[in-house]
């Protein structure tokens, strides 16, 4: 395990196991002003340097409400990451979705409660624009790559993020449905906002692991794990294809200049 000066321009954030996609990866530790995140796995994927960050730790030991999101995103910034592709397990609120489906959200709603949500707690006062919450360039490549691979993908959805670690109640899910939300998870926020605050492109690909509360009799972590294991080969294909297809330079997204005119 090394302490750092390795660089990569593309990152994948997800559960443990994705590091096996890389050839000749190095395991490195990055210190940040916000604490020490899990080790980063930096290696080669389709001739491009890619870093993988296990969101919940190498042993999946950190619950969603205790993930140090600021340390995670800042560590990627420290190794010069310009683009992040995140993988999230979600529950289906929209009845047209079913377990195993792949979804690329276009918008989000934040119902978390206790998480630090910004790098800018002090002057200069900074207001980041999230009119396009997810990087349109990465979203476009994800959707096109999924279609080329013959994967069925839902190209638009509103993701609502809850605090966890408990699952939601049927009443909460009914409220979310009436508000127009499609999928629910515990890890999408504040990752996306923190990335935008550092002018890093960010998009996520979600897989439906269960129907949300009230749409099935009960929910268990085992069910989420079983679906994850079934869907993971498809997600891996999608990640590999997307990394290969992403243009080298960022040209057509708002993320690059997110701080322009954002400060008072």
Could you describe the 3D structure shown?
The protein has 264 residues and is α/β, with parallel strands linked by helices. The protein has a single domain (10-257), classed as 3-Layer(aba) Sandwich (Rossmann fold). 24% of the residues lie in helices and 23% in strands. It has five helices and eleven strands; from the N terminus they run E-E-E-E-H-E-E-E-H-E-E-H-E-H-E-H. Strands 1, 2, 3, 4, 5, 6, 7, 8, 9, 10 and 11 form an eleven-stranded mixed β-sheet that branches. Helix 3 (170-178) links the parallel strand 9 (158-162) and strand 10 (183-185). The longest helix is centred in the last third of the chain and has 25 residues, at 221-245. It is globular, with a radius of gyration of 17 Å. The relative contact order is 0.20.
Which CATH class applies here?
A: Alpha Beta
Provide the domain count: 1
The CATH superfamily title: Nucleoside phosphorylase domain
Order of helices and strands: EEEEHEEEHEEHEHEH
Structural class: alpha/beta
Radius of gyration: 17 Å
- Sheet having the most strands: 11 strands, mixed
List keywords for this structure.
Rossmann fold; 11-stranded mixed sheet; 24% helix; alpha/beta; disordered N terminus; 264 residues; 23% strand
At a glance:
This protein is of the alpha/beta class. The protein has helices at 69-78, 136-148, 170-178, 191-197, 221-245; strands at 10-14, 23-28, 40-45, 48-54, 83-92, 102-103, 107-111, 153-154, 158-162, 183-185, 201-211.
């Amino acid at each position: 395990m090394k302490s750092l000066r390795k660089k990569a321009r593309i990152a994948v954030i997800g559960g443990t196991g994705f590091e096996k996609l890389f050839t000749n990866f190095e395991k490195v530790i990055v210190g940040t002003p916000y604490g020490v995140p899990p080790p980063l796995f930096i290696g080669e994927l389709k001739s491009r340097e890619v870093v993988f960050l296990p969101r919940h730790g190498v042993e999946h030991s950190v619950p969603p409400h205790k993930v140090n999101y600021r340390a995670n995103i800042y560590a990627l910034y420290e190794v010069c990451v310009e683009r992040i592709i995140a993988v999230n397990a979600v529950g289906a609120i929209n009845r047209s979705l079913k377990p195993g489906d792949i979804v690329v959200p276009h918008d989000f709603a934040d119902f978390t409660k206790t998480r630090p949500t910004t790098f800018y707690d002090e002057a200069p006062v900074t207001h980041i624009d999230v009119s396009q919450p997810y990087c349109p360039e990465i979203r476009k490549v994800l959707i096109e790559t999924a279609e080329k691979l013959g994967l069925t993908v839902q190209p638009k959805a509103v993701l609502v993020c809850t605090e966890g670690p408990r699952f939601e109640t049927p009443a909460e899910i009914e409220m979310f449905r009436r508000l127009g939300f499609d999928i629910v998870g515990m890890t999408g926020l504040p990752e996306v906002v923190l990335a935008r605050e550092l002018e890093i492109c960010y998009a996520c690909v979600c897989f439906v692991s269960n129907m949300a509360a009230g749409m099935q009799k009960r929910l268990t972590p085992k069910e989420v794990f079983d679906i994850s294991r079934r869907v993971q080969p498809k997600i891996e294909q999608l990640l590999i294809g997307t990394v290969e297809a992403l243009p080298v330079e960022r040209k057509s997204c708002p993320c690059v200049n997110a701080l322009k005119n954002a400060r008072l």
